[in-house]
Write a structure and sequence with these properties.
This protein has 469 residues and is of the alpha+beta class. The chain has 12 helices and 25 strands. Strands 4, 5, 11, 12, 13, 14, 15, 16 and 19 form a 9-stranded mixed beta sheet that branches. Strands 1, 2, 7, 8, 9, 10, 17 and 18 form an 8-stranded mixed beta sheet that branches.
Amino acid sequence: MTTRTDVLIVGAGPTGLTLACDLARRGIAHRVIDRADRPSTASRAKTIQPRSLEVMDDLGVVDRIRALGAVHVPTRHYDHDRVTSEAVEAAIGVPPSPEFPHPAPIWISQPFIEGILRDRLADHGGTVEFGTTATSLTQYDDHVAVSTGSGDIHARYVVGCDGGHSAIRRLSGIALDGTTYDRERWHLGDLEIDGLDRHCQHVWMSPEHGILSLFPLPSTNLWQFQASIDPAIEDPEEPSLELFRRIFDERAGVPGVRLHSPGWQSLYRINVRMADRYRDRRVLLAGDAAHVHSPGGGQGMNTGIQDSYNLGWKLAAVLDGAPDDLLDSYQEERMPVARTVLEDSTARLRMVTQAAADGDSTFALRNLTDDFTTGLTIGYPDSSLNLTDQAGMRAADGPHQDLRLFDLFRGPHWTLVADGNESLLVRPDGYIAARGPLDKVTQLQAGSYARFGRSQRSTSSTDRSRRTA
């Protein structure tokens, strides 16, 4: 049986679900398939950064994330069973101000993010087709044919959001270039722990053992277990509850602590790789399918979410009549971001592992925190989509007339904001397309309809009745 849709999204992690929610609210026909039989329960990522929280705000789910997550989780450092320090060290964010309604990252397990986005997709009438694997892919002039075990799907565009081992990337012949760091490996897992305070993360760092981190996952009774592996070990032991208990006894030895009830367990190798291109005609890649890197800085899930947020409005515009080459701007804007993330996350991980090798148990992760990790300074100042100089940067929040700017921006539309004769034209993904005198910006907007398609409907700060939902 052959079915048809406008966009086929392969992969139902945070990247694919963000894209699905964005397309659904725009009324774009789409399907989401995932090879897994059911939603994942593995914690994997556990930090959602301020810029990604702004995306979730726009999609209407940030309140649920706040309710299930935690902010400013302290880190308690140990020397074996002796506490050496406790402080909020990691990912402080930015000082609170009207420009930043979500100034701090939220700690929340990835399955919660996925569940919240699936519920939001259901609000729009969408669903995820689990247990559906893409086995072949053929591109034609006007569509892509994807074979699955339950039939063929013909889609005008296909987006691979299916992770580091992406089938869509492989079937499209897109290379993933980079390096595997065979000696930088970790034992990871989710389990329950009795006898440790859940208000903080517990960390041990030593030259002889490396790093052990136990993080309490908010709104669960689970902990995420992370333990670095000695680079001298040729063939690491497969993860197990017995191994985790032995690691804890060797590196921590805190009395009265019991590890039990394991769930997800993984032997993780650091890969730093990026696709040589994000697009092959009617196939595009997003998230880990396009770039994989170390967990340093907590950027993986966040970069994928922001990839989809950049791509969603462009796909909708092209499907609504904009020129197909608008999709080329996705790679143009997002590939430099991923390249910087790869370099930054690798440097951060090396600093942490070096601190452990030096025996610096008081090493503060705040030394690794800057504006880049929040995502708030990411922009596209050199984008070919910018209509004026001083464009391409994130449009800040703040009070405006009788409401906030983010209240104006929220939704799938463009927004024209005027303050006297000065104005901003803000893209659907919250970045500034034009800045300048109102008459000039209005003229530029009118002249760009052919470029951005009929979907470039806008709301203005002085006429909210024009807002499109």
